[in-house]
Amino acid sequence: MTIRIYNSLGRTKEDFRPLDPNMVRMYVCGITAYDRCHIGHARSAVVFDVVVRHLRRQGYNVIFIRNFTDIDDKIILRAREEGVTTTKLAEREIRHFTEDMDALGVLPADVEPRATQHIPEIVSLIETLIASGHAYEASGSVYFSVRSFPAYGALSGRNIEELRSGARIAPGEEKRDPLDFALWKASKPGEPEWESPWGKGRPGWHIECSAMAMKYLGPTIDIHGGGLDLIFPHHENEKAQSEAATGRPFVRYWMHNGFVTIRGEKMSKSLGNFVTIREILSAHHPEAIRLFLLSKHYRSPLDYSEELLAESEAALERCYAALADAKKALSSCGERDRPLTDDLNEAASVVESIKERFDLAMADDFNTASAIGHLFEGVRALNRLSQSAVKAPSRRYHRPLTAGVAAIREIAGTLGILSQDPETFLRRKNLDAIARLGMDEAGILAAIERRASARAARDWTTADTVRSELERMGILLQDGPEGTTWTMKRQTQAETQGGQRP
RNA sequence: GGCGGCGUAGCCAAGUGGCCAAGGCGACGGUCUGCAAAACCGUUAUUCCCCGGUUCGAAUCCGGGCGCCGCCUCCA
């Protein structure tokens, strides 16, 4: 199936044809390691994680690189404020990031290179650019000459002359053109520094990505990803310096994810309206967070709110409940050969077709929102089969139930959800919830016992009193053929109002 | 100012020329149940911000409004 990708360069959807038919070279800009990551960083990571997972499931051999910027102005500034070295600060934040990613189920990249560990490659790339007249040295710094690269502005759709009129040269910079950008920055006293042919200094921000991408993936890579805000100047500059150095196209498909907003505004440090990944993880299941992040197409803005996260959580629970029910149904469908009704045959065919429809949605520029729609159609069809299988057992349920569970798990695997055992997930969720309320299960089980005796005696008043007492604490009872089970009441919108966060 | 995006049910969100406008959350009615819950079934947008136009036919294309947002400086 041909995948179509919206290419930021050209702003159209194009058929995806990697340089080598079965291999995908992919690079995504990671974080600058100076502070905790928020849900916006999580979105970028999860979106490209899903791209990698999907490409791999389609049979591509994906080489995936995600870098860490571990030296830059912000890191130097923050390290100074905290009185630690830039290395220590970066190490710490990289560790936090890695922990966040592990928690979110984001697969590690094949290589996670750091700028400071690639100084020789960076220096060598800069030397090439100087030799070919695309860069020049001035007082120990090296700048890229934008004028020397006529295609500059093509990626971001910017007009060079307009950019030039708005740009200015900062004090201490010796640029020949206001648009020129630093490849190498001469160090100021007290700053971290590395040896170079131009004296001690450190790499500029953009050059590290070119050097590392080309080191691990070669001069032309298939997919380069990052947040929308990286298009200009970061990716424009990366493209210019890489192509100036090699004379070959740097990236075949540029992908940019949209922002996470909060109350309609971009989440950012400067506005102070950000919510860290860690905060959200403390209140929500990681897979619910993934489902939320994937609920909208990756290029559109996604508005964050507690209510929407709670909705995703409810939707996720529904999926797990369906898998758990299907398992039970499977064990009770028996050997009797009873034909299925038309609508059940239809449910069976829905279940058998969701993989294909899911892949079709994903092939259209990774339309996860649409793909999730198909997933839920599968869930409903599976529920229908499970319910009938219990009511009117027949061995004819065996195949669609088994296929349905397998299909749902497989496509969910592309999204990085439904990876746990359903019973374990549901039980854990309940135990976690009562633990948060400071309760334990013994009390609940005792109450269920009391109610069971009352019910046996047909004392409905007592039975209902016990049940409503538990319900007031947020615990719902479910009477089934094998006795009574308990579960936590789902949070509704009304109940989450004025919830955990302002 | 330049460039770009968005406006679909109570909320979230697919769909970008033609089957009844996906799916999720919520709400309501039904099946089930002692009553419930869960699940299932049904209902919940004669209509896609507004006004014109093109077309046999438009949420989808064109023109004009209105509203919201982003980039143009570090930013996922």
Please give a structural write-up.
- This protein is α/β, with parallel strands linked by helices and 502 residues long.
- The chain has three domains: 4-257, HUPs (Rossmann fold), CATH 3.40.50; 307-419; 426-496, no CATH class.
- It has 17 helices and 15 strands.
- The chain has helices at residues 39-57, 73-82, 86-104, 119-131, 160-166, 205-217, 231-246, 277-283, 286-293, 306-331, 342-363, 368-391, 398-415, 422-436, 441-456, 460-472, 493-496; strands spanning 4-7, 12-15, 23-28, 61-66, 135-138, 141-144, 181-186, 201-203, 221-227, 251-257, 260-262, 265-266, 302-304, 475-480, 483-488.
- A four-stranded parallel beta sheet has the order 4-3-9-10, with helices on both faces. A four-stranded antiparallel beta sheet has the order 5-6-7-8. Strands 12-11-13 form a three-stranded mixed beta sheet.
- Strand 5 and strand 6 (141-144) form a beta hairpin.
- It is elongated and about 95 Å long.
- The two termini are 45 Å apart.
- It binds one RNA strand of 76 nucleotides through helix 1, helix 5, strand 9, helix 7 and strand 12.
